[in-house]
Design goal:
The chain is α+β, with helices and mostly antiparallel strands and 391 residues long. The chain is built from 12 helices and 9 strands.
């Protein structure tokens, strides 16, 4: 037997071990979920489980249950490690509020037999016992067409997404929430970003991500300081505040025939100013990821988005369109929202040690957007005011 044959045998054995480990893990998961459903829910017996390869925080599954030969699909979430129970209660209070308002686009919670909305389990991981939370939601129909880093929806889809965001804001403006989201409002989060970036600058390695991060660190810190200097705290505190989605992008929407038919992922939601949510949605949905223009905010899409949001909000009685003061804040909220995502790029990479090439793409995109905003500030500000004040 030559070395090549021996290497092939070893590779086959390793692959067989990996396959066996995957089968064991899948069987364990199915049995564990079957026990959770039987103990806490009344939605039938688990018949299939499929892990959804979407998202960066929680682990999600499409599950199917069967009752009297009738099968139904649900969305099951296993919350991220270390999440606080109060944050789950906050997220679920938003969903329950939307259910009470008959908001048609969000997935409703599936309640436990005792009326609760989530399950807490004690599980062993890496030799330690920890709390793990599960929740089950209705399964939203429609197409998962996009992701946050591929948000190139059509103009019709973008316009409808803006209208849906206006309807969502109107629906939650009178909400009484439970629990709390621990992430600070953007005005209090911004001052922590500089310290966060400096902390990671001391932990850099030898990857291309590290080199790019360090190369643009001083510029990023300067933009953070400038952004803070543009926000008047007293005026900010007087802006309308509500349960913003805080992750509103085409990847968290489902579509059918050019229209939004589903809105999901409220686990990033928090109480903050409405104009931050509008700005973040534009930063996600109106920025190109293509070629040499990567990071550019596309003014024609910003106009389309703002016109649709303005027109829809004008028809809603509870909240209405953006006020003059919110309009004044919107450009700096665009700057802040891009820094918000950039901070996530760095934070998530250094905490979880992800693929440096993947995260380099994210960081480059947000740095380029940061530069575009600085270079086109007057035009961006004038465009936003012209569109919104015209209404």
């Amino acid at each position: 037997m030559d070395l090549g044959e021996l290497r092939a045998i070893v590779e086959n054995l390793v692959q067989s071990v990996h396959t066996l480990q995957e089968v064991i893990a899948r069987n364990y998961l199915e049995e564990h979920l079957r026990k959770i459903l039987a103990t806490h829910y009344d939605i039938g017996e688990l018949s299939s489980v499929r892990k959804l390869d979407r998202g960066y925080v929680n682990v999600s599954y499409e599950i199917e249950t069967e009752t009297n030969s009738r099968k139904r699909r649900y969305f099951l979430r296993r919350y991220k490690r270390g999440i606080r129970e109060e944050e789950i209660r906050f997220e679920h209070s938003i969903v329950k509020h939307l259910m009470s308002k008959n908001f048609p686009l969000s997935a409703g919670l599936i309640f436990r037999k005792d009326g609760g909305t989530y399950v807490r389990e004690m599980e062993e991981r890496e030799g330690e016992v920890e709390e793990v939370y599960y929740a089950i939601f209705e399964f939203l129909k429609g197409e998962d067409k996009y992701t946050w880093d591929n948000p190139a929806c059509s103009r019709k889809e973008l316009s409808d997404a803006a209208r849906v965001l206006a309807r969502y804001h109107d629906a939650v403006c009178d909400m009484r929430y439970e629990g709390r989201r621990y992430e600070a409002k953007i005005i209090d989060l911004l001052p922590t970003i500089s310290g966060n970036l400096m902390k990671y600058a001391k932990r850099t390695g030898n990857t291309k991500f590290d080199a790019y991060f360090l190369k643009h660190l001083d510029y990023t810190l300067r933009v953070v300081d400038e952004t803070l200097g543009q926000i008047d705290r007293h005026a900010y505190n007087e802006l309308p505040q509500l349960a913003v989605h805080s992750d509103y992008h085409p990847g968290n929407l489902k579509f059918r025939k050019g229209s939004v038919v589903g809105l999901f992922d409220f686990d990033w939601s928090k109480i903050d100013v409405r104009c931050f949510d509008v700005a973040l949605a534009m930063t996600y949905g109106c920025t190109t990821w293509e070629g040499k223009d990567d990071g550019d905010l596309l003014l024609d899409r910003i106009i389309l988005f703002l016109e649709a949001y303005r027109d829809e909000a004008s028809t809603l009685k509870s909240l209405g369109p953006l006020s003059d003061r919110e309009i004044d804040f919107l450009p700096v909220m665009v700057k802040a929202s891009n820094l918000y995502v950039l901070n996530w790029d760095v934070d998530d990479y250094y905490i979880k040690k992800h693929n440096p090439y993947e995260y380099l793409i994210y960081l480059q995109h947000n740095v380029r957007t940061m530069r575009w905003i600085e270079d086109n500030w007057d035009n961006l500000t004038a465009t936003i005011r012209r569109v919104l004040q015209a209404g």
